[in-house]
Design goal:
Length: 323
C-alpha cells in the first residue's frame, strides 16, 4: 500500500513536470508568433505609410496637373479672348477707316478749278457789229447787235480799250488759279454781236460768263462799281436767276472790297440781250464810271486795274465755293 502511494506520487510528479515543460515550450512559440505578427503589422504599417506617401504624391501630382490644366485653359481662354478682342478692334478700325474714306461735312466743297471753264467778254469793240438782234430767244423786240460804248472824260480812252486791257489781266489771273479761260474777243478790230458773245459761253459749256464793261453817266459825280443779272421773272432764262444772282453778288462784293470803291450793288434787269441769250450763269460787271474825271484816271493805273482783277477773281472763287 505504501508502495502504491509512492508510485502514484511519482507519477503525479512526472505529469506535473511534463505539463510545465510543455507550457514553457508553447509560450515562446506563441510569443514568437505574436512578435512575428507585430513585425508583419509594423512592416505592413510602414508599407502602408509608403503607399500613403505615394498616394499623397500622386494626389499632389494630380492636383498639380489639374492646376496646370486649369491654368492652361485660362491661358487659352485669355488668348482666345485677346484674339477676339484684337479682331473686333481691327474690324472696328477697318469700319472707321471705310467710313473715314469719305469723312461727312456740312460745308460746301470748293469746285475743282481745273475742271471749270470761264468765258470773259471784253465789252464792245473798235469795230461795231452792224444790224440788230432779238432781245432774247423768241422775243419780238430787237436791239442793236452792239455799240461803241463810252469814253473817258479825262483820259480820252475808249471803253473797249479799257475792257480788253482788264480782261486780258483777268484771264491771266484766273488761269493762274487753275481755270480754263476763253475770250469772246482778243483784239479791238473784230466786230462781235451780243448774241455771238453769249454763244461763245454756251458752246464752251462755261461754268460762268463774266462780261467786263465801264459805266457812263451824264452826272460826272456818279462813281463806283456794280454788277447786272437777269430777274427772277425773266422770260428768257428764268432757271438761271439764282446762279446768276449769286455770281453777281460774289463778284461785286469782292471787287469793291479789293478796290476800295463804292459798291452800287446788283441791278436785276431783262434789258441786256447779252445776258438774255446766255445759257450759263452770267454777270455783267461795270468796273467804274469813265464819265467821272477822278475815277476815269484811277482806272487807267496799273495798280488799280490789278485790284479790280484781284477782286473779280476772288468773286469767281467765292461763287464756286458756295455752289
Amino acid at each position: 500500500m505504501k508502495n502504491l502511494k509512492k508510485i502514484l506520487a511519482l507519477f503525479c510528479a512526472v505529469l506535473l513536470l511534463t505539463g510545465c515543460l510543455g507550457k514553457t515550450d508553447s509560450e515562446p512559440e506563441k510569443k514568437t508568433e505574436t512578435t512575428g505578427q507585430a513585425a508583419e503589422t509594423e512592416q505592413t504599417k510602414e508599407e502602408g505609410q509608403t503607399e500613403e506617401g505615394e498616394t499623397t504624391e500622386t494626389r499632389e501630382t494630380d492636383e498639380e496637373g489639374k492646376i496646370k490644366e486649369t491654368q492652361t485653359e485660362k491661358d487659352e481662354t485669355q488668348e482666345t479672348s485677346e484674339t477676339a478682342t484684337a479682331e473686333t478692334d481691327l474690324a472696328e478700325t477697318e469700319a472707321v477707316d471705310t467710313e473715314f474714306v469719305e469723312p461727312a461735312s456740312s460745308e460746301p466743297k470748293p469746285a475743282d478749278a481745273n475742271a471749270l471753264t470761264i468765258v470773259i467778254d471784253p465789252g464792245h469793240s473798235g469795230v461795231v457789229a452792224e444790224g440788230s438782234e432779238p432781245l432774247g430767244p423768241g422775243s419780238g423786240e430787237y436791239k442793236a447787235a452792239d455799240a461803241s460804248g463810252t469814253r473817258g472824260v479825262s483820259s480820252g480812252m475808249a471803253e473797249y480799250e479799257l475792257t480788253l486791257a482788264v480782261s486780258n489781266q483777268l484771264k491771266a489771273e484766273l488761269e493762274n488759279r487753275g481755270y480754263t479761260v476763253l475770250m469772246t474777243r482778243e483784239s479791238n478790230d473784230v466786230p462781235v454781236s451780243c448774241v455771238q458773245r453769249a454763244n461763245v459761253a454756251n458752246d464752251a459749256g462755261a461754268a460762268a460768263f463774266i462780261r467786263i464793261h465801264a459805266d457812263g453817266s451824264e452826272n460826272q459825280s456818279a462813281q463806283g462799281a456794280m454788277t447786272i443779272c437777269t430777274t427772277p421773272q425773266s422770260p428768257f432764262v428764268p432757271g438761271l436767276y439764282a446762279s446768276s444772282r449769286s455770281l453777281s453778288d460774289c463778284v461785286i462784293s469782292n471787287l469793291c472790297e479789293a478796290a476800295g470803291c463804292v459798291n452800287r450793288g446788283v441791278w436785276e434787269t431783262d434789258s441786256m440781250s447779252g445776258n438774255n441769250w446766255c445759257q450759263v450763269p452770267t454777270t455783267l460787271v461795270e468796273i467804274g464810271f469813265m464819265t467821272n474825271p477822278d475815277e476815269d484816271m484811277l482806272m487807267q493805273t496799273a495798280e488799280y486795274q490789278a485790284k479790280i482783277v484781284q477782286g473779280i477773281a476772288d468773286g469767281v472763287d467765292a461763287f464756286f465755293e458756295s455752289e
